[in-house]
């Protein structure tokens, strides 16, 4: 008699509950406005905080509202090297310094960037994980396109008007430290999603293995049989 395997149990589903109780908010660039299109706007880093479930730290950056008498606080993915009290400049005429936000077309070739927009105005979609970065490869002024190298190694052509943060995402080397204990993995994935613990296929009973039915010749069994037959014949 067959069993309901893990993939089938998850597919049946239940009431979904996202693990977002302690999240600090969505990390995005500013909404594009007149100040960024034609000049720059200055903000200040108020705090650098940890966001549960995310490897990279977040930076709280306060900007003056250009249209109303108040301040707006944005959550940016922190670049390596920024600190509290640092001024962050966003816009076409901002200087090329760590943490500043500029259009990709204004950056020289070879610039290291992160939190890159995939389409103009989407507020950052690429190279956002801790330690990740993209590299500006070339520009085409005629088509107003730029070519960037993504963290995966693939090359992508994007609009030169897409904005990006100068620098590398902070928190690099996070996965170099081993977890060592199941308790640490428990707390790690409790903040992320329900995908732990995961039983290895070779540790399961035959009827519970997801890629075959009971009695099937598959996986390590077939390799061992092939070696056994090969040795006995030759």
Describe the structure.
It is a single chain. The chain is α+β, with helices and mostly antiparallel strands and 234 residues long. It folds into two domains: 34-174, SH3 type barrels; 175-233, no CATH class. It is built from four helices and ten strands; from the N terminus they run H-H-E-E-E-E-E-E-E-E-E-E-H-H. The protein has a six-stranded antiparallel β-sheet, with no helix packed on it. A four-stranded antiparallel β-sheet has the order 3-2-1-4, with no helix packed on it. Strand 1 and strand 2 form a beta hairpin. The longest helix has 14 residues, at 220-233. 21% of the residues are buried. The mean pLDDT is 90. GO terms for molecular function: rRNA binding; structural constituent of ribosome. Residues 11-90 form the Large ribosomal subunit protein uL2 RNA-binding domain. This is Large ribosomal subunit protein uL2. Residues 96-214 form the Large ribosomal subunit protein uL2 C-terminal domain.
Descriptors:
234 residues; alpha+beta; SH3 type barrels; 2 domains; 4 helices; 10 strands
Query: Any idea how many domains?
Result: 2
CATH class of the largest domain: Mainly Beta
The best one-word shape is elongated
Helix content: 10-25%
H/E element sequence: HHEEEEEEEEEEHH
The appropriate CATH architecture of the largest domain is Roll
Average pLDDT, to the nearest integer? Answer: 90
Tell me the radius of gyration. Answer: 24 Å
Assign the structural class, choosing from mainly alpha, mainly beta, alpha/beta, alpha+beta, or little secondary structure. Answer: alpha+beta
Question: How many β-strands, per DSSP?
Answer: 10
Percentage beta strand: 15-25%
Strand order of the largest sheet: 5-10-6-7-8-9
Unreliable parts:
none
Biggest sheet, in brief?
6 strands, antiparallel
In the CATH hierarchy, the third-tier topology of the largest domain is known as SH3 type barrels
Could you tell me how far the N terminus lies from the C terminus, measured between alpha carbons in angstroms? 39 Å
**Helix count, DSSP H or I runs of 4 or more residues:** 4
């Amino acid at each position: 008699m067959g069993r309901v395997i893990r993939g089938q149990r998850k597919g049946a589903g239940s009431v979904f509950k996202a693990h977002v109780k302690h999240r600090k908010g969505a990390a995005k660039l500013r909404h594009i406005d007149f100040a960024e299109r034609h000049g720059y706007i200055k903000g200040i880093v108020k705090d650098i905080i940890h966001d549960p479930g995310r490897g990279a730290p977040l930076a709280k950056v306060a900007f003056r509202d250009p249209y109303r008498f108040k301040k707006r606080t944005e959550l940016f993915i922190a670049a390596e090297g920024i600190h509290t009290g640092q001024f962050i400049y966003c816009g076409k005429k901002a200087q090329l310094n760590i943490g500043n936000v500029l259009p990709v077309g204004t950056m020289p070739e070879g610039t290291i960037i992160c939190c890159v927009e995939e389409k103009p105005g989407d507020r950052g979609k690429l190279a956002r994980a801790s330690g990740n970065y993209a590299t500006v490869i070339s520009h085409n002024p005629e088509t107003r396109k730029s070519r960037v190298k993504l963290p995966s190694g693939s090359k992508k052509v994007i609009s030169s008007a897409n904005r990006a943060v100068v620098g590398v995402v902070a928190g690099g080397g996070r996965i170099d430290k081993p977890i060592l204990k199941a308790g640490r993995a428990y707390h790690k994935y409790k903040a992320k999603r329900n995908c732990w613990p995961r039983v290895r296929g070779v540790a399961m009973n035959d009827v519970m293995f997801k890629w075959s039915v009971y009695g099937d010749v598959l996986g390590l069994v077939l390799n061992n049989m092939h070696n056994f037959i090969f040795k006995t014949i030759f």
